[in-house]
Every structure is written in structure tokens, then in C-alpha cells.
Design goal:
- By secondary structure, the protein is mainly beta.
- Helices cover 5% and strands 58% of the residues.
- It contains three helices and 20 strands.
- The strands form two sheets. It has a 14-stranded antiparallel beta barrel with strand order 2-3-4-5-6-7-8-12-13-16-17-18-19-20. A three-stranded antiparallel sheet has the order 11-14-15, with no helix packed on it.
Length: 418
């Protein structure tokens, strides 16, 4: 098993986040589409999981969840996204496959709930490619031309954190986060008559870096505390993600066949990303059936770049309802009997506000974990979503996500009495 760990860690040097275009023009605004969950497990529970205490997986929404880690664990995942995008007159389909992220964690003390986790995961993605054709207005004045709009990049998060048990059996956790990334916005002007007219490309490149933190709490089992016999487990969870103003440098470039102009702007007022609040409640029946209800709020109306606010961003909210079946292990169970199943629904009022129209998203999701042995699983996550509208010549998107990942665990670091 240790050889497998070393091979996976070494392979990371060959992996980078993809910047392919999925033609989602909404990601042009702000810092792009937000990534709430990086793994198939998180996709399968609606990407949030504020109250989840799962020793078999590493969840990143609430660092307090790491208090139940009982194995050294490494997780990584790949994701496929296919999207059909349409307006009132046209439609197109495109897809991309990306490396989603990796996390590594281990328990320092199962008695005190001290778990340590590090990881590299995406925070947001910008990924679109669209074209618009313009007919000529008197050929000798303005000939026909087309404009291509392209966006690439996003923001990634590198984090290190830990958890601990507080008095009254409360789980707590905190992380130190480092955010970094590039956002490239490219506009290309191409004339049909490119002999007498000069084609030009404009590129606006932003580079952002800075620090933040995530702190969280998960309550003890309130079903036991208050003798609620209906549930075998009942918990509340809360986590807050704070990002300091990101240092932002901009590089503006205009290029054609005759000239190249570049303007570099350093030490701007920066990028101000609003606070994100995650909260939830979960309850379990018969120790194997778990239902969780999660809510996320992030006031993107307060987002600023270079001291400016944007009218096309609003406060984002997401609600998810998830169901999970995790079988209770017993001697003689087959591999099929040990499969964990999950699924649910979510509604998201995204941060996008276009022409006064809020862009909402409705999703159904599911997945399962197939055991390779007692500590290792192959994880599958699926999500189908509908976002936006065709009204007012806006864009409607139907997309499917398919996540594949592995979660490997082994006893490291823990000491035992002889």
C-alpha cells in the first residue's frame, strides 16, 4: 500500500488543472463558477456536507469533520462535465475532463479528535468560448466581422488544517488557506476582409494571490444527549470561509499584425471575495440511513475588483437535501452488501444577475462508494443540473457532471500499547 501512496504523490508533478472551455458564458463574471466540492463523495451529497462525520472520506466544507479520521488517507478525483447550452435560436454541446483535486490527511490522536489534512482543490473556474458575427454597415465604412470571446483559468486553494475535540464533545477545526490563480479574458476581432483591415486580439490577464481561513464546528450527537429515540444520530454543523483581500496584478495586451501594446498594473486595491457561511443539520435512522440538509450563503453583491463593484453579481444561496445509506459492517458481508449509496436534490440562486434576471440552478445528484477492501474505496459521483433561462435572450444550460475518485486508507502514525 505504501508504494501506491508514493506513486500517486509522485504523479502529482505531472498533473495540472485544465483550462479547457465548456462554453459557459456566465463564468465570465466575477471569479467564475464556484466549486463547492472536489470529490465524488461531495458531489453525491450536494457538494456541502456541513455536518458530515465520515472516517472513510476527507470532506473540505467543515474542517471539524476531520476529528473522526482513524486512518491515514489520501483522495484524488477526476471529473467530466458535458454541457448543452442554448438561447432562443441556437444551441451547442461541449465537454471537458479535468483533474479535480487531491487531499491527504492523518489522525494524530483519535482520543482527542486531532486530525491533520492538507490538499489542493479548485475554488472557482472560468471557462467559456463564444463567437458573435456582425454584418457590414456600408462595406466601405464598417465591413463584416466577428468577435470571439474566450475566458480561461480560475482560483485554486492550497490548504493545511487540523481538528480537535472541545468540551461537551463538540468537534472543531480550522485551516490556513492559500489562494492563487490566473483569470484570462481574451477578445479577438476578425474582419472578413483581412487584407485592408487589421485583425486584433485584446487580452486582460489577472493574477491573484492571498491567504484565508476556514473554521468550523459540529455538535455532539444530540439524539443521545436529549434521549431522542427517533434518531440514532442528530447533529448541527457550521463553518465559515474567510478570504483576505487577494493581491491582484493585471496585464493588458492589444496585439495585431502591425503593433503590440502592453500595460502592466501592479498592486491594485485587490480582489475582495465575500465571506461564505455553510450550515446544516443531519439525522440518522438505525445507524445506517443518514439525511442531511445544508445551506450556503455568500453575499457576492459585496465582491470588488480593483475597488469596483459589479451590477451583474448578487448574493448567492444554495440549499441541498441529501440521503445516504452506509451499511453497518459485519462479518461475512459481501462486497456488494458493503456499497454505500447517496443521492439528493439542490436549489442554487447563483451569484449571477444578468439584465436584472437572476440565474438559478436546479440539480439532482447521486453516487456510491465501492469497497476495494476494508479501508479503500472507488467513488462515483453524478450530477445533472439545469441553469439559466432563454428569456431575454439569455442562456439556458443543461449539464451533467461525472466524477471518479479513489480514497485510500492505511494505519500510519498511530501508536498502540504493547
Amino acid at each position: 500500500m505504501k508504494i501506491i501512496f508514493l506513486v500517486i504523490i509522485s504523479s502529482l508533478f505531472l498533473i495540472s488543472f485544465s483550462n479547457g472551455q465548456n462554453s459557459s458564458a456566465y463564468s465570465r463574471y466575477g471569479i467564475g463558477d464556484l466549486d463547492y466540492g472536489y470529490s465524488p463523495k461531495m458531489i453525491g451529497i450536494g457538494e456541502i456536507g456541513s455536518t458530515q462525520l465520515d472516517p472513510g472520506h476527507i470532506l473540505i466544507t467543515n474542517p471539524a469533520s476531520w476529528s473522526v479520521l482513524n486512518r491515514t488517507r489520501i483522495e484524488l478525483s477526476m471529473g467530466y462535465k458535458g454541457i448543452d447550452i442554448s438561447n432562443s435560436s441556437n444551441s451547442a454541446f461541449t465537454s471537458e475532463t479535468e483533474f479535480q483535486g487531491i487531499t491527504f490527511g492523518f489522525p494524530l490522536s483519535t482520543v482527542y479528535g486531532i486530525g491533520v489534512v492538507a490538499g489542493l482543490v479548485p475554488y472557482s473556474r472560468i471557462s467559456y468560448l463564444s463567437k458573435e458575427n456582425f454584418p457590414s454597415v456600408q462595406e466601405d465604412i464598417i465591413p463584416s466581422y466577428k468577435v470571439t470571446y474566450e475566458g480561461r483559468g480560475g482560483i485554486s486553494k492550497l490548504f493545511l488544517g487540523s481538528s480537535v475535540y472541545l468540551p461537551f464533545e463538540i468537534s472543531a477545526g480550522a485551516t490556513l488557506d492559500y489562494y492563487f490563480g490566473n483569470q484570462r479574458y481574451i477578445s479577438t476581432l476578425e474582419f472578413d476582409d483581412n487584407v485592408t483591415n487589421v485583425n486584433t486580439t485584446y487580452e486582460n490577464n489577472h493574477r491573484a494571490t492571498g491567504f484565508g481561513t476556514t473554521v468550523g464546528l459540529i455538535s455532539p450527537n444530540l439524539a443521545t444527549k436529549f434521549n431522542i429515540k427517533t434518531f440514532s444520530d442528530l447533529r448541527f454543523g457550521l463553518s465559515i470561509n474567510y478570504i483576505s483581500n487577494l493581491n491582484s496584478d493585471s496585464l493588458l495586451t492589444a496585439a495585431s499584425s502591425t503593433r503590440l501594446d502592453t500595460v502592466a498594473v501592479k498592486n491594485t486595491p485587490g480582489t475582495k471575495i465575500p465571506l461564505r457561511i455553510n450550515s446544516g443539520i443531519s439525522f440518522a435512522f438505525s445507524e445506517v440511513y443518514n439525511v442531511s440538509f445544508d445551506y450556503v450563503y455568500q453575499p457576492w453583491s459585496k465582491y470588488e475588483f480593483n475597488g469596483l463593484k459589479y451590477n451583474n453579481l448578487r448574493d448567492a444561496q444554495k440549499i441541498s437535501l441529501a440521503f445516504e445509506y452506509i451499511p453497518k459492517l459485519s462479518f461475512g458481508m459481501s462486497l456488494l452488501d458493503r456499497i454505500s449509496w447517496r443521492g439528493g436534490l439542490s436549489y442554487e440562486a447563483t451569484q449571477y444577475m444578468i439584465y436584472g434576471q437572476g440565474i438559478n440552478q436546479y440539480s439532482v445528484f447521486g453516487g456510491f462508494s465501492f469497497p476495494m477492501d476494508l479501508d479503500n474505496t472507488i467513488d462515483i459521483g453524478l450530477q445533472y443540473s439545469v441553469r439559466g433561462t432563454k428569456d431575454n435572450n439569455l442562456l439556458k444550460e443543461n449539464f451533467v457532471k461525472f466524477y471518479f475518485g479513489i480514497s485510500l486508507g492505511e494505519l500510519w502514525f498511530l501508536s498502540f500499547e504493547k
